[in-house]
Amino acid sequence: MVTYLIRRLFWLIPVLITVSAVTFIVMRSAPGGPWDTDPERRQVDAATEKSLSAYYGLDKPMWRQFYAYIIGDTNSQTKEYVCGLICGNLGPSYRQRGRTVQDILFSPPEDKTFWQSRFGYSLRLGGMALLMAIMVGIPIGIIAALKQNTIVDYVALFFATSGISVPSFVLAIFLIFIFASRLHLVDIVVDDWTQIKYWFMPMAVLGFGTLAYTARLTRSAMLEVMRQDYVRTARAKGLAERAVVFIHMLKNALIPVITILGPALAGLVTGSFIIETMFSFPGMGRAYVQSIFQRDYSMIMGTTLIYALLVAVANLSVDIIYVFLDPRIRLED
Amino acid sequence: MSVQTASPNKIAVINDVFKPSRSLGQEAWSRLIRNKASVAGMFIVGFFIFLAIFAPVIAPMDPLKLHSGKRFLPPPFDQGATNIKAEPEFLLGTDSLGRDVLSRVIYGARVSMVVGFLPTTIILLMGSTIGMISGYIGGKLDNLLMRLTDVIYAFPDLLFFIIVMVALRDSFIGQFMNGLVLLFAALAIVNWVGVARLIRGQVLSLKQKEFVEAARCIGAKDTRIMFRHILPNSLSPLIVWAAFTIPGLIITEAVLGYLGLGLRPATDSGQFFVTSWGVLMLDGQTAINSQPYLLLAPAICVALVVLAFTFLGDGLRDALDPRMRGTQ
To answer: Does the N terminus or the C terminus of chain B have fewer Cβ atoms within 10 A?
Structure first.
């Protein structure tokens, strides 16, 4: 058990190194440097560019830059040792001068709490969406399974299927059109995210896919469990229907549902950037999309790495929970 | 000796025996067309393929022609909030440059259909070859390939597409076919992994089967066993996989287009790919109040295509493997 956990944790390291190496190589192979991505709107002259490149260490060989990015290196101008990724330093942003990537993502504006930072906003939205998906999806799945092959089941199944397949940004477009553009219930561009009423739409859009998937999976798991002998035994010994459903059926049916929460959480994290952009939500995803439009290479790299780390950790934690929940799982060595 | 006449029952049985036998494909097809949702899905997919091929004939106008003074016209059936008067010949109105939205949406089907089908073919060829070799040969090579798939699996795929498109869009390869070649390459690099694992699993279980042993006994070569005996038996999961992957690829293209990383805008009308649904949505997002159909029309198209493929995929899974029916 412990060896399994340690092995899984160590497996994170090659994955993250590969992800950062691939990101690094792809980003660096972009034609031109970060200062002249758009030749028509060249922002700096040659001399400034040279000193900027020297300052950011971009004149060094590739492997050295990668080493500096991951481990750290001495800055050739200030002669200071700058620690890299292993110290949590994602490097300076190329577009927002004077700020580092981790600063943009994680530190809140002055005299605000962590929850007001970009990452904090995204975390809150993702958490709310996941909570909604679980709280609504599982009951829908249970009801659909108990009323199998009735109209309730068909309606639930249709919504689940469309929720899984229709991408969230398409749903966002429909909802914005109906509720913001036509019914004027909410503003299209929201400035004040302290009001809770503005959170509902992005939360619903972000969580709907997961909700649908949870509902469908709960339904099929329940249907599987309902046919088991121990359920018949429970009924035969005269247990109340409620006890049969919640204790004997649900407890076993929820195990496969929990396994998808990892990928679901990962999906909520990576799916959030397009939703955040559409709702002009001040989270990490929108910062990511902005950095894509601005070709802010260090910002794109840093955010990609954080997303990859989140996805890997989410998957790992679910694998671990799964082992604890299901005693039937045998771990290979 | 009297000849006994066969009872009607027996005749029926005999007739059954002599009926031309149906292949597995025919059986699956007859099950598929009994599924109403799948048939509807097939029709919708067929409709969009038709639109994509015959776009120049169907589109009412040139999708690149700028109608000066007719910017942001609303569609005739929905005046909306603007005070610009709709014109009947622009069925879905016009965009910020006075181009006909309906024609642009019709041309957009081309990109989505090509993005759906072409990379899928590449991915299937690549993934099944690698998966088959990995599963059949086994040993160190198998181990190496599977570790490689583990790493690719761990990389969040949309992020990979984004960094590839950001970095290489302006490079030499990014210019081919309005940037579609680069997109295909990125999609293939990530998605072959799923096929490879699927096929490897199939090969591992099938290579123990008697018919493979029999083939080996009569001296069939490894390549013949792989491609004539094992591959045809793993086709069903591959077909189902394709039906569920195609909409994923279409969505990816739309997302990238929406992020400004998709198709490069075409300038002359002779080009095959004019615009894509994702690019149209990017154009439309700033005009949700004045011309919402710029955003809505491509969104509805994406939703329809994706749903159609999902229903088709569900039907295919049930048809090709009746044991799976109702379990998902």
So the answer is: N
Q: How far is CA A85 from the centre of its chain?
A: 20
Residue B76 DSSP SS3:
coil
Nearest of A137, A278, A295 to residue A216 by alpha carbon: A137
Q: Give the Cα separation of B235 and B29 in Å (integer).
A: 14
Question: Distance between CA A268 and CA A214 in Å, rounded?
Answer: 13
Residue that the structure tokens 């077909």 belong to: B239
SS3 assignment, position B275:
coil
Q: Are A311 and B156 in contact (CB under 8 A)?
A: yes
Asked if the structure places residue A180 within a domain, the reply is yes
Residue for token digits 């998966």?
Answer: B131
Among B173, B178, B43, B57, which residue's Cα sits nearest to residue B107? Answer: B57
Judge whether A287 and A118 are in contact, CB under 8 Å.
yes
Q: A93 lies in a domain? A: no
Which uninterrupted H or E stretch holds A66? helix A62-70
Q: Which residues pair with A83 in a beta bridge?
A: A72
Residue A136: what pLDDT?
93
pLDDT digits (tens, 9 = 90+) for B89-98: 788 888 877 7
* A77 assigned to some structural domain: no
CATH of domain B41-324: 1.10.3720.10
- The alpha carbon of residue B167 is apart from the nearest alpha carbon of chain A, in Å, by 4
pLDDT tens readout for residues A134-185? 999 999 999 999 998 899 999 998 888 888 888 888 888 888 888 887 887 7
Residues in A closer than 8 angstroms to B155, CB to CB, are 18-19, 22, 308
Mean pLDDT across chain B: 83
Predicted ipTM? 0.80
CATH code: domain of residue A270: 1.10.3720.10
Over range B55-70, report the average pLDDT: 81
Instruction: Locate all alpha helices (DSSP H) within chain B, ordered by sequence.
Output: 8-18, 24-32, 36-53, 55-58, 101-137, 139-154, 157-168, 180-206, 210-217, 222-224, 231-233, 235-258, 277-284, 293-320
Q: Which residues contact A103 (CB under 8 A, 6 or more apart)?
A: none
Taking the Cβ of residue A309 and every Cβ of chain B, the question of whether any pair is shorter than 8 Å is answered with no
The count of domains in chain A is 1
Write out the two tokens for A308: 């990859």
How many Å apart are CA A186 and CA A169, to the nearest integer? 18
What is the per-residue pLDDT for A212? 92
> HSE (CB half, 13 Å, CA atoms) of B250?
34
Chain A residues with CB-CB distance to B82 below 8 A: none
On whether the CB atoms of residues B268 and B126 are closer than 8 A, the answer is no
Fill in the DSSP letter of residue A19.
H
Residues 237-266, chain A, touching B (beta carbon < 8 A): 266
Q: Write out the residue range of the structural domain in which residue A289 sits.
A: 114-325
Report the run of H or E that residue A142 belongs to, with start and end: helix A118-146
Tokens standing for residue A158: 């249709």
Q: Which of B81, B156, B261 sits opposite A307 (nearest CB)?
A: B156
